[in-house]
What we know:
By secondary structure, the protein is an all-alpha fold. Among the domains are: 2-57; 107-151. It has helices at residues 2-54, 58-61, 68-71, 109-121, 126-133, 137-147. α4 (109-121) packs antiparallel against α5 (126-133), α4 (109-121) packs across α6 and α5 crosses α6. The radius of gyration is 39 Å and the shape is elongated.
Amino acid sequence: MTLILLVFAALIVALQIALTFTLKRMLDLLAATRDEVHRLQLRVQTLEQERDAATPPPSALFTLAPRPEAAVPPPTPSPPSEPPPAPAPSSAEPADLPVLHEPAAATSTDAVGAQVRALARQGMPVREIAERCGLSEAEAELIIHLRQEPV
Length: 151
């Protein structure tokens, strides 16, 4: 019986020794990995500092200069001449497209905001408000919530 207990005690001691060596090896690996990560972090910081030193500040990227047309006096008005005839719309282009040189009829942002809030107070859904005012749903929602008025 004593022999069996001695064998079990020897096995337990051998297992403890093996476990100790395994833990020691794992701790060494962990320390090596931690040191490598620290070296990599220092390298990244060094590279960032070099990049920041090489990048000029935002104020150096832009310079303000007067517009060249500001120095030129405005042209004197010439007598009106006949405007060139407008080309006939082709069948591929619809006739109701806006002309780029004509100013678009823009409504005041305050008026649009007031209209959006008025429609919201009436209980209209955001989708319909957006369609009526020519806005996206997100814009209509933003206008409603920016005022923080009860709807």
